[in-house]
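Record type: monomer structure entry
Structure origin: computed from sequence
Chain ID: A
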Amino acid sequence: MSNYEYEDEDDDYTNDSSNDLVKQLRKAAKQKDKELQELRSQFEGLSKAQRERTIKDALAARGVNQKIASFIPQDIEPTEESVSKWLEANADVFGIELESNQSQPNVDPSDVAAYKRMTGAADAGMSPERGADVMSRLMNANSKEELDDIIRQSGL
């Protein structure tokens, strides 16, 4: 009997230390699960915020009220192209008219004015050949009247 009691005591001792180890492992697993859940909730929150921002930016680029973003279905990919396609398909529902990218060039009005000034200057200006011709005629003029006539004809 004494052998039997000795074995029981040894089993209890091993059982206690293994119970502590199991308790520690369970505690560590619960802590990891809690951390994982926190990270998942943060990820979902950031993903949702990024989706909303991307959709609102796409709507703003099209010149549409950003409140429409709440009506865009979750299965629509949050890219400017897919939002534009969805918006074109549902524009009549919201009573909006979309601006066509082909009809309105993406050029700054001040650049247009500068281009017109440059074109006008090039059209009104003298070509180098004509200027060289006028210069050679001026240099070869023999009298004051001939010089005046060349100046009058050249528009100088």
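Annotation 1: The chain is about 75% helix and 0% strand.
Annotation 2: The mean pLDDT is 79.
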